[in-house]
Structures are given as structure tokens and as C-alpha cells.
Write a structure and sequence with these properties.
about 160 residues, Ubiquitin-like (UB roll), DNA polymerase, domain 1, 2 domains, 5 strands, globular
């Protein structure tokens, strides 16, 4: 067991935890946050994506020791932002979500992309969403949703 200090959804935490425990398990089991999903458990599907210091990461691959001093944002907190509203509206408009299992990871990955590249090309969107799998919707609708979010978001991401 080790003491790990980090910020989760804007709350500073100091927890006593097995340093090899997966961040995903801590989020879901200890913090009872259900928005972050477990799909493959090996970093291949993107269902467990969270923001770590503003970049999308697969929480199933991150041991708790690696979150020391970092800021983690889950979809459970991100859904309270203007950026989420814009992304959600764009995904709805373009039909970028069906069953919804992949949607939290897609939204978080889209936020990471747009916060670092507010006006991405289609190729940049594809690269930014690589590693996030969707078996229902198909990727063209998701790519169109990210393009639309970039357009309707105006300068929302330019400020960052």
C-alpha cells in the first residue's frame, strides 16, 4: 500500500492504495463513478478513456502509482462543461452514438483532440480517435460529429 496524492474531478485526494491497482478500478469501485467503462481491459477499445492533465489515456493501463501529482477528469465530471454540451449536441446531430457504450471514451478523446487542435482535419480527427472502437455507429458519423463540434464550438477550444 502507498499514499497517492492526485486530483480527481477537481478534488484533491490522498489515498492509501495498492500502487499497482488500475486507475479504472479505483474510479469505478472506490469512487463509484460509472461513466468510465471497462471494455477490453488491455487498452485497445477506449471505453475507459479519461483525461490525465488534459490528454486522453486508457485508465485500464494506468497503475495508481502513475497518477501521483496528476489531474484526472472522468466523463462523470466532464459532462458538466460547455465543451461536453457542444460535443454531445454534435454527436446527437450527426448520429455519432447508438448503444452509448463507447460514447464516453469518444467524447473524452474528442475533448483531448480539440483542446490541443481546435480545428482538426479529417485525418487529424481519425488519428485523435485512434484506439477508440465503436461497433454500432461506424466512424464516419463520429468524425462528422467532431468536425461539427469544432465548427459550432466557435472559439471554445481556441482559448485553451
Amino acid at each position: 500500500m502507498a499514499k497517492i496524492k492526485f486530483t480527481l474531478n477537481h478534488k484533491k485526494l490522498e489515498v492509501e492504495v495498492d500502487p499497482s491497482r488500475r486507475l479504472l478500478d479505483f474510479i469505478r469501485e472506490d469512487m463509484h463513478l460509472s461513466g468510465t467503462k471497462e471494455g477490453c481491459g488491455e487498452g485497445s477499445c477506449g471505453a475507459c478513456v479519461v483525461l490525465m492533465d488534459g490528454y486522453s489515456v486508457n485508465s485500464c493501463l494506468i497503475p495508481m502509482a502513475n497518477v501521483e501529482g496528476h489531474e484526472i477528469i472522468t466523463i462523470d465530471e466532464f459532462k458538466n462543461t460547455k465543451e461536453f454540451e457542444v460535443l454531445y449536441a454534435a454527436f446527437s446531430e450527426e448520429g455519432g452514438s447508438q448503444c452509448g457504450f463507447c460514447t464516453p471514451g469518444m467524447i473524452i478523446a474528442s475533448q483531448s483532440l480539440l483542446s490541443h487542435n481546435p480545428h482538426p482535419s479529417e485525418e487529424e480527427i481519425r488519428a485523435g480517435l485512434a484506439g477508440n472502437l465503436c461497433r454500432c455507429t461506424g466512424y464516419q458519423a463520429i468524425i462528422q460529429a467532431v468536425k461539427l463540434a469544432s465548427e459550432i464550438g466557435g472559439n471554445l477550444w481556441d482559448k485553451k
